[in-house]
Amino acid sequence: MPKGSEELTNARKEEIINACAELYDAMNFKDITLKEIGKKTSFTRTLIYYYFQTKEEIFLALIQREYELWIADLETLLQNHSKMSVEEFSKELAHSLERRERLLKLMSMNHYDMESNSRMDNLVAFKIAYGKSVRTVSCCLEKFFPRMTVQDIQEFIYAFFLFLFGVYPYTVVTEKQKEALKRSHTNYVFLSIYEITQSLVMKLLQGF
Questions:
Q1: pLDDT the model gives residue 5
Q2: CATH class of the structural domain 56-204
Q3: Are the CB atoms for 60 and 114 separated by under 8 Å?
Q4: Residue 104 buriedness (CB in 10 A; 0-12 / 13-18 / 19+)
Q5: Hey, what CATH class is 1-51 in?
Q6: What angle do CA 108, 57, 100 make, to 5 degrees?
Q7: What's the whole-model pTM score?
Q8: Helix (H, G, I), strand (E, B), or coil: what is residue 195?
Q9: Average pLDDT over all residues of the chain
């Protein structure tokens, strides 16, 4: 058992977030309740409210953690390479997101409702993680592509991060959706997370 209130609080928050992540890997957001999350923790559902007041706050904490894991991958990329070509960087960035499928799934959700149903402290903590991810990608661009101007980097960030919100629904397609596309005669090219990301980054960095 962790010693000290801060350590205990962090351990219990992590347990709640882990329970939420496990449920989210098998269920839809709308079907997950605080009751279901409580069933997977070692303490009562009532105690969950001491740490998180709404389901949305738990999901916001989960997204924050997923951003932090992705940031750690990007920081490792920065540390392990002194220089990279466009092709090398696009492949590594695509692989980093291929490992973060849960992040991409969470990004495809309705952030407006989650953020509006979370307390300010929780929202600020999430925004800090999101902001750090933007800065870390920018640092990669500054290091590996010194010819890029401030405006070039800003334009990449706008295009790339907007693109990320659509990666999961575009690449993870159910059999029902595939059948609907077939019946509607929609010309749909099925790409993996890696393929679609690597292609987009190559295009955005063309010429650098």
A1: 84
A2: mainly alpha
A3: yes
A4: buried
A5: mainly alpha
A6: 40
A7: 0.92
A8: helix
A9: 93
